[in-house]
Structures are given as structure tokens and as C-alpha cells.
TrEMBL record:
Lineage: Bacteria, Bacillati, Bacillota, Bacilli, Bacillales
Pfam hit, one: NUDIX
Designated name of the protein: NUDIX hydrolase
GO molecular function: hydrolase activity
InterPro entries on file: Nudix_hydrolase, NUDIX_hydrolase-like_dom_sf, NUDIX_hydrolase_CS, NUDIX_hydrolase_dom
Span of domain Nudix hydrolase: 5-135
The organism of origin for this protein: Heyndrickxia acidicola
Record keywords, A-Z: Hydrolase
Annotated family: Belongs to the Nudix hydrolase family.
């Protein structure tokens, strides 16, 4: 039996003055799609560290993780099962410097503006809409549910 791969992903909504940062991707699996900074958790990496690393790589910002909206399980457009850990963060330092080649644009946008975007503009639109809904309804959880990686 051929099993599809399970991919572990972190996703981060960076919040500043009632707006959130979205990036436009230029990856083969997501050309011209808007998304929150996100990426795969590397082998042996702590989940919260992975979230901060991905934001830094894709946007140039250093962030502090504040809370989580939870864990999302879905099948990606490439037919992989994705387990996505989503976090809310605020900027602590750095400056906007988009990851060359993979990120082609960014914008600060309100949650209601994301709700008004077309599905084809968003990467994995169902998941992004679930995250936005959780944020609007303030369904947040403390990050203490994610225990540090044991050595």
C-alpha cells in the first residue's frame, strides 16, 4: 500500500495595529498565492523555534510568539496530509526583507479584507479562512500546550 507523506508545517500570523502580514508566494505549489508566513518543521526542530525561523526567513522580522489558534489537518494540493500548527506573533525586531525567489510581495491587511479575498487568491483557502475565523472570534490558546523538544 502506498502511503502519502505527512508534512508538519508552522504558520504564523504576524499582528500589528489591527492588521496582519500576508505574503505572496512564488513557489511551484503556490504561484501568486497569498499566505501567512509558513513552512515545514525541520527534523528535530522545536515547533515554536520553527515558527520564528520561518517568519525570519520569509520576511526578515524577528517575532515573539504570543498564542496559537490550534492545529489544522488537511490534504494539500500536492496530495500530502498536512498537520499545520498556527501561531499569532508580534514583531520584536528586524526589518522587512522578503525571501528572494520564493516570496514576491507582502502586505498588511485586516482580517475582514482577507475574508473578502477570492479562494483562488489564497493558498489553502479553507485553512486560511478557518484561521481568520478563529482570530476574529478570539479563539486563542496558550503556547504552553506545546512542550519544548526533549533532548
Amino acid at each position: 500500500m502506498n502511503q502519502n507523506r505527512i508534512v508538519l508545517v508552522v504558520s504564523v500570523t504576524v499582528v500589528q495595529e489591527n492588521e496582519v502580514l500576508m505574503i505572496k508566494e512564488n513557489k511551484p505549489s503556490a504561484i501568486n498565492k497569498w499566505n501567512f508566513p509558513s513552512g515545514r518543521i525541520e527534523q528535530g526542530e522545536d515547533i515554536l523555534n520553527a515558527a520564528c525561523r520561518e517568519v525570519k526567513e520569509e520576511t526578515g522580522y524577528d517575532v515573539k510568539i504570543l498564542e496559537t489558534t490550534g492545529v489544522y489537518n488537511f490534504i494539500s494540493s500536492s496530495n500530502h496530509q498536512v498537520i499545520l500548527f498556527h501561531f499569532i506573533a508580534e514583531i520584536q525586531g528586524g526589518f522587512l526583507k522578503l525571501e528572494e525567489d520564493e516570496i514576491i510581495d507582502s502586505k498588511w491587511i485586516s482580517l475582514s479584507e482577507i475574508q473578502n479575498m477570492k479562494n483562488e487568491e489564497l493558498r489553502d483557502s479553507k485553512v486560511i479562512r478557518q484561521i481568520v475565523e478563529a482570530m476574529i472570534n478570539k479563539k486563542f490558546h496558550p503556547t504552553e500546550v506545546f512542550n519544548e523538544k526533549l533532548h
